[in-house]
Write a structure and sequence with these properties.
By secondary structure, this protein is of the alpha/beta class. The chain has a single domain, classed as Alpha-Beta Barrel (TIM Barrel). The protein has 11 helices and 8 strands. It has an 8-stranded parallel beta barrel with strand order 1-2-3-4-5-6-7-8, surrounded by 6 helices. Strand 2, helix 4 and strand 3 form a beta-alpha-beta unit. The radius of gyration is 20 Å and the shape is globular. The termini are far apart.
C-alpha cells in the first residue's frame, strides 16, 4: 500500500511539474479544452430538433445551445423538452454523439417583453426547471428589442424586480441565468450589482459591443471573469469571422487568457451575406476558425 501511494504521489507531482498549470487550468484541460465551441440550434434551423446534434457534429462543434421553443402569445414557451420522453431523447442523442448541451436559450424574449409580459417570470422558471431536469447549469435570457434599457430606461425597475425574482429561483436550483442586454460593460455591471444575485450573470455578445463601437477586450475586462457565464462569439451577419475586420479573435483570446476565463464560445451568426442560407457552410467556416484560434 505504501509503495502504491508513493508511486501515485510521484506521478502526480511529475504531472504538475510537467504541465505547469494552475488547478483551474488543469481542470479545464481534463475536459478537453479550456474553451469549447457550440452552435445555436435555432440559428442552424434546427430549433429544439434532434437533428441539431447531427448537424452540429458535421459542423465540427463541441456542443449545442438548445432553444426552449417559441413564445409568441403563449403563457410560456412551446417547450417539447417538458415531455419526459422527448427530453430523454435529447439527452441520449447528445451523449451518443459526444456533444454537450451547453445551455438552454430563451430566444423568444428577443421579440417579447420580459418587463411587461404578465407571465414572464413563469416562462423563465419553466426554463430553469427544464435545465434542472437535464442537469444543465446555464440558461440564456436576452432582454431583446422591447427590453432595450438604453432606449427604454423607464423599464429598469420592472426588469430588476423580475430578475431578482428569477434569480432566487435559479439560486435554489443551481442554475445560472446568462443575461444579454444592450448596455455597455460598465452599465451592465451596475445592473448585475443592483440585481444582486450570484445566479444572474452576463452572457456577453461580441455583436452588441462592436455595433456600438465598443472594444470587445476592454468590455470583457470591465465585466470581469466572475460575471461572464458564456459568450456569443459572432458578429451580425455579413461576413465570416475570419473576414471580419471588427473582431480580432487573437486579441480577444489573449484577453480571456489573462483574465483566467474559460467556458463556452457559442456561435450565433456571422453568416456570409452572399450565401446566408447555406447553414452548413457558414457555421462550419466559423466553427473551424474559432477553434483554430481558441483550441
Amino acid at each position: 500500500m505504501k509503495k502504491l501511494s508513493l508511486n501515485f504521489l510521484t506521478a502526480l507531482a511529475g504531472l504538475i511539474i510537467t504541465v505547469g498549470l494552475s488547478p483551474e487550468k488543469v481542470a479545464a484541460q481534463s475536459n478537453g479544452h479550456r474553451y469549447k465551441v457550440a452552435v445555436v440550434d435555432l440559428m442552424i434551423l434546427k430549433r429544439q430538433k434532434l437533428g441539431a446534434f447531427r448537424l452540429a457534429k458535421d459542423i465540427g462543434a463541441d456542443g449545442v445551445e438548445v432553444d426552449m421553443g417559441g413564445l409568441g402569445n403563449r403563457e410560456t414557451f412551446d417547450n417539447k423538452l417538458a415531455i419526459d420522453s422527448v427530453r430523454n431523447q435529447f439527452l441520449a442523442t447528445s451523449k451518443s454523439m459526444n456533444l454537450e448541451i451547453c445551455s438552454l436559450g430563451m430566444t423568444g424574449f428577443f421579440a417579447q417583453s420580459f418587463a411587461q409580459r404578465p407571465t414572464a417570470v413563469r416562462a423563465v422558471q419553466d426554463c430553469i426547471n427544464t435545465a434542472k431536469e437535464m442537469n444543465l447549469k446555464v440558461v440564456f435570457l436576452p432582454l431583446g428589442v422591447q427590453g432595450d434599457l438604453v432606449k427604454n430606461p423607464e423599464l429598469r425597475p420592472a426588469i430588476v424586480e423580475r430578475l431578482k425574482a428569477v434569480g432566487k429561483i435559479a439560486e435554489e436550483t443551481g442554475v445560472v441565468i446568462g443575461l444579454e442586454t444592450s448596455l455597455d460593460a460598465k452599465e451592465e455591471l451596475k445592473l448585475l450589482k443592483e440585481i444582486g444575485s450570484p445566479a444572474v450573470k452576463s452572457y456577453f455578445n461580441f455583436a452588441n459591443a462592436v455595433k456600438n463601437g465598443r472594444d470587445i477586450s476592454k468590455e470583457l475586462e470591465i465585466l470581469g471573469k466572475k460575471e461572464i457565464v458564456q459568450i456569443h462569439c459572432t458578429d451580425e451577419d455579413g461576413v465570416w469571422l475570419q473576414n471580419d475586420t471588427r473582431i480580432d479573435l487573437k486579441k480577444i483570446k489573449n484577453t480571456l487568457d489573462k483574465m483566467g476565463w474559460s467556458g463556452w464560445l457559442v456561435i450565433e451568426r456571422s453568416r456570409d451575406a452572399n450565401d446566408p442560407r447555406n447553414v452548413k457552410k457558414n457555421f462550419t467556416a466559423n466553427t473551424t476558425y474559432v477553434k483554430s484560434i481558441f483550441q
